[in-house]
Write a structure and sequence with these properties.
Blueprint lengths: L1 H19 L5 E2 L2 H25 L4 H17 L4 E2 H24 L6 H14 L5 H12 L3 H23 L1 H12 L18 H4 L4 H10 L5 H18 L8 H16 L18
Antiparallel strand pairs: 1-2
Helix pairs in contact: 1-2, 1-4, 2-3, 3-4, 5-12, 6-7, 7-8, 7-11, 7-12, 10-11, 11-12
Length: 282
C-alpha cells in the first residue's frame, strides 16, 4: 500500500506541473480534464476507502481529503479556471506526505495485510443474494464505514431469519415460544416471552434477542450458534449508538463470518423460494 500511496502522490504532483505549463486561464484540454477526474475518482473509490479500512487514520483527516478530491472531480467539467485547479492541488499536496506517506513508512499504520485479507473475505461472500440490505452492508464495509456495515449486516441476518420463520409458519413460532415459556427447568426455564405473531410485520416488532431464543427453541440454531449471533446483535447495537468502543476491520471480519456461516449459508435457513428484496412488488 505504501508504493500505491507514493505513486498516487507523484501522479498528483505531475498533474500540478502539467497544469502550471498551460498558458490559458481555463483548462479545456480533454486530456487534462480526464486526468483530473481519474485522480479524484482513484482517491474516492480506491485509496481513500482502503486507508479508512486500515483503521490507522482518523475519519476527520480522510474526510477532509475526500472532500478535496471530490471537488477535483467537479472541476474536471469543461473550462474551469486554472487557478481553481492549482489552488485545490496545493491544499491537497501541502500535508499529504505527512498525513499518509510518513505514518505508513514509520510503521505507525499497518495497511496492506489487513486490507487485503478484508477485501478477500468481502469478495468471497459478495455473491450472496440478500437484496439491498447485504448490498448496502458490503458497500459500507468497502468504503470503510464499519459501523454502518455492522447495522446493515445484522439487518441481512435477521431478515433471513424472519423469512425462514414465515416459510415454516408463524404458528410454529408461536407454539414454540409458548412451550418454552411453560418450562420450569432446563435451558429455557427463564424464558417468559410467549408470542402471537401472524405476519412478517408483526414479527419485526419482536425484539431480535427474543427471536434468537425462539429460533433456538425451534431447532434452527444450537446453544453455541445462539451465543455467537447474540454477540453479533450486541455488536450491531454498539455500532448503532454513540460510544467509545471501536469497530475495526477485524471486528467486522468476525461479524460477517458468523452471519454468513450461521445464517446465510446454513441449510436450515435456506429458503425454498428465492425472494428478491430489491425487486418492486407486483
Amino acid at each position: 500500500m505504501l508504493d500505491r500511496v507514493k505513486t498516487f502522490l507523484e501522479e498528483v504532483r505531475r498533474f500540478r506541473s502539467e497544469l502550471k505549463a498551460v498558458t490559458f486561464n481555463t483548462i479545456g484540454q480533454k486530456k487534462l480534464r480526464v486526468k483530473a477526474e481519474w485522480i479524484g475518482t482513484t482517491w474516492c473509490n480506491d485509496i481513500g476507502p482502503k486507508l479508512r479500512a486500515s483503521g490507522g487514520f482518523t475519519p476527520e483527516v480522510l474526510d477532509r481529503y475526500t472532500e478535496k478530491f471530490a471537488k477535483l472531480i467537479v472541476l474536471s467539467s469543461p473550462s474551469n479556471r486554472k487557478s481553481s485547479y492549482l489552488s485545490l492541488l496545493e491544499e491537497v499536496l501541502k500535508d499529504f506526505r505527512k498525513d499518509f506517506v510518513l505514518p505508513i513508512q514509520q510503521a505507525k499504520v499497518a495497511v496492506s495485510s489487513a486490507v487485503s485479507s478484508f477485501d478477500a473475505f468481502l469478495t468471497k461472500i459478495a455473491p450472496s443474494d440478500e437484496g439491498e440490505y447485504f448490498k448496502e452492508a458490503l458497500s459500507c464495509a468497502k468504503q470503510g464505514y464499519f459501523r454502518a456495515a455492522t447495522v446493515m449486516g445484522w439487518c441481512t441476518a435477521i431478515d433471513r431469519i424472519h423469512r425462514k420463520v414465515e416459510e415454516l409458519g408463524f404458528a410454529m413460532f408461536n407454539v414454540t415460544s409458548a412451550q418454552m415459556a411453560s418450562q420450569t427447568s432446563g435451558r429455557f426455564k427463564r424464558f417468559n416471552q410467549t408470542q402471537n405473531v401472524n405476519s412478517v410485520s408483526e414479527l419485526r416488532e419482536v425484539f431480535d434477542n427474543i427471536v434468537l431464543w425462539v429460533v433456538e427453541g425451534m431447532g434452527l440454531i444450537d446453544f453455541n450458534q445462539h451465543t455467537r449471533l447474540r454477540s453479533c446483535f450486541e455488536m450491531r447495537c454498539q455500532a448503532a449508538h454513540p460510544g467509545e468502543a471501536p469497530t475495526t476491520e477485524y471486528n467486522l471480519l468476525s461479524f460477517f463470518s458468523d452471519i454468513d456461516q450461521i445464517v446465510l449459508v446454513n441449510p436450515k435457513f435456506a429458503l425454498k423460494k428465492t425472494i428478491n428484496l430489491a425487486a418492486p412488488a407486483k
